[in-house]
Amino acid sequence: MDDISINSSDEDVSSLGSTTPSESLVEKDTYKLDREVHPLNSKTAVKMNRRKSSSLFRTMSNNIISRTSSIVEAVKDDSQYAAERDRETLERADYGAEVYAGSIMREPIDLEKDADESETEKQQMDTPPDGTFWGWTTCICVMLINTFSWGTNTVYGVFLEYYVSSNHFPGANMEEYSLIGGLCLGMSFMFISVANTLIRRFHYKSVMLFGTAIIVICFCTASVATSIVQLVMLQGFLMSIGFALTAGPTFVMIPSWFLKKRSVAQGIGAAGVGLAGVIFSKPIELMIQNGGNYRWALRMLGIVCGVMLTISIALVRTRRPLQVKNDSLIKAIWQNFTRWDILFRSPMMCVIMWNCIYGLAFAVLLFSFSSYSTAIGLTRSQGSMVTLVQSIAQTLGRPVLGIMSDRWGRANTTILSTTFLGIISLVWWTFIKSYPNLLVFSFITGFFMGISWVNFTPLCADVVGGGDDLLAAVSLLTFIGGIPQIVAEIIGLKLKRPEMSQPFLYCQILVGIACILSAAILLPFREWKIKKFLTVRKDLIEDDVKRSEKDEIRLRRYELMLERTFRGRLIRMFYPMKV
């Protein structure tokens, strides 16, 4: 029942269980009996044809059902094996904690060598505990750190609306305002590598508290900025450094505590970015509308963020010490960006390009709904509600995306989510003209748009494993992926056509194409990972002296699927298994 290979031989057909043994004989006997009993008239011929058609239909139905059942069983079999291998791989890839502790230096994961490893060695591995009190406490603290650092960028649209409508900085243009949001998001990603290198030299809490101080200072000084240049430097460039130093180290904290629940924990931690919009959007809007003074809104943000970040950093813990004494600081930072052996691995390039292109769509979606609401005739209050709904959806969606990734596979969930976002942007967003429709659309997009935050680190680990290689991979991915996010909002602004009946049409097309293209770029990564799993399983079966009949069927299936041809790659790329 497991053979899905395409073969016309009787042996393969019988192995699929496609026909019952006596159906062809029954058909012949029925035909002979009809010939003997009935004269060859038109009615008899019609009855004979009906019987033959009915018999043929039953045979074809049985064949289709049998083949479909065989395919389903084969997919279940391979998916179960892939899930088991994935768990074993995660046990060996501890997301860089070993290198930070200076205790174990591991090479990238080799699934073929891993298959031969003894059970004693596996038991000796220091695997994450998958939770514990301090593990879940750290997870909640990471969520709060993201809320009061990166998350505050989700409410920048409220300040932007005030800056533009009041002409607070005379002579400032929309490109300069848009650059502030882009710098906060993109530059902070580009500085993550520096932050993660600093925590290897200094205590991670010292680095994070220094970043918190920068955030508080930037919010307070931005409230007294007198020119757009000062605002760009304070609320844009310097703020991004504070975000990176405060929230960047959290990428290596959750993985050291969780194994099987890793994607769920990552989703909970990433949910903090959307939670900030839920907490701050309405209070800031009311402060600006009622008091007419944005300055105290910025100061309030700085004070609240400073207090909450200090408490969260005090409670957060790593399972192992992160400080090590190694090469010079500058050399260590430089090495993270010059790991060409990692950058030029084809699956790693797929993950980096996916994150880079999808980041463009993510930034446009994040910053466009407020101005789009105004463009279709909605009030400022309604536009703020649309942004709030999107933030709520992000908060709810990221943990759910983590659960989906654990259940159906990270690559599968990522590809399907980004494809779905691209499709609805093209066929739905372009036709939205009413407030209720925009609310529903903002919730759905907000629910799925955080997929990159949930899965980009685990996808990197799939390629390079753990240790120093993962640190370099994440550094390369965030540095390259931060570049388009800096200019994404400016690109969206340039694509806006106020004179058209649909001023955001080109922005919507950009988002749709970017999402679909990024999903397509990730397909070769999926093909590579499936090939790895199937190759390991094929080698294990071939090395086994006592093969069962099912093993022989699996071998024939794997020979077809592992062909070094375009057909083989296409089959692996779209083979419906958990990856």
UniProtKB/TrEMBL annotation:
<dbReference type="InterPro" id="IPR011701">
    <property type="entry name" value="MFS"/>
</dbReference>
<feature type="transmembrane region" description="Helical">
    <location>
        <begin position="413"/>
        <end position="432"/>
    </location>
</feature>
<feature type="transmembrane region" description="Helical">
    <location>
        <begin position="179"/>
        <end position="199"/>
    </location>
</feature>
<feature type="transmembrane region" description="Helical">
    <location>
        <begin position="206"/>
        <end position="225"/>
    </location>
</feature>
<dbReference type="InterPro" id="IPR036259">
    <property type="entry name" value="MFS_trans_sf"/>
</dbReference>
<dbReference type="InterPro" id="IPR020846">
    <property type="entry name" value="MFS_dom"/>
</dbReference>
<feature type="transmembrane region" description="Helical">
    <location>
        <begin position="470"/>
        <end position="491"/>
    </location>
</feature>
<keyword id="KW-1133">Transmembrane helix</keyword>
<feature type="region of interest" description="Disordered">
    <location>
        <begin position="1"/>
        <end position="26"/>
    </location>
</feature>
<comment type="similarity">
    <text>Belongs to the major facilitator superfamily. Monocarboxylate porter (TC 2.A.1.13) family.</text>
</comment>
<feature type="compositionally biased region" description="Acidic residues">
    <location>
        <begin position="1"/>
        <end position="13"/>
    </location>
</feature>
<dbReference type="GO" id="GO:0022857">
    <property type="term" value="F:transmembrane transporter activity"/>
</dbReference>
<feature type="transmembrane region" description="Helical">
    <location>
        <begin position="231"/>
        <end position="252"/>
    </location>
</feature>
<feature type="transmembrane region" description="Helical">
    <location>
        <begin position="438"/>
        <end position="458"/>
    </location>
</feature>
<keyword id="KW-0812">Transmembrane</keyword>
<feature type="transmembrane region" description="Helical">
    <location>
        <begin position="133"/>
        <end position="159"/>
    </location>
</feature>
<feature type="transmembrane region" description="Helical">
    <location>
        <begin position="503"/>
        <end position="525"/>
    </location>
</feature>
<protein>
    <submittedName>
        <fullName>DEKNAAC104490</fullName>
    </submittedName>
</protein>
<dbReference type="GO" id="GO:0016020">
    <property type="term" value="C:membrane"/>
</dbReference>
<dbReference type="InterPro" id="IPR050327">
    <property type="entry name" value="Proton-linked_MCT"/>
</dbReference>
<feature type="transmembrane region" description="Helical">
    <location>
        <begin position="264"/>
        <end position="284"/>
    </location>
</feature>
<keyword id="KW-0472">Membrane</keyword>
<feature type="transmembrane region" description="Helical">
    <location>
        <begin position="296"/>
        <end position="316"/>
    </location>
</feature>
<feature type="domain" description="Major facilitator superfamily (MFS) profile">
    <location>
        <begin position="347"/>
        <end position="579"/>
    </location>
</feature>
<dbReference type="Pfam" id="PF07690">
    <property type="entry name" value="MFS_1"/>
</dbReference>
<feature type="transmembrane region" description="Helical">
    <location>
        <begin position="348"/>
        <end position="369"/>
    </location>
</feature>
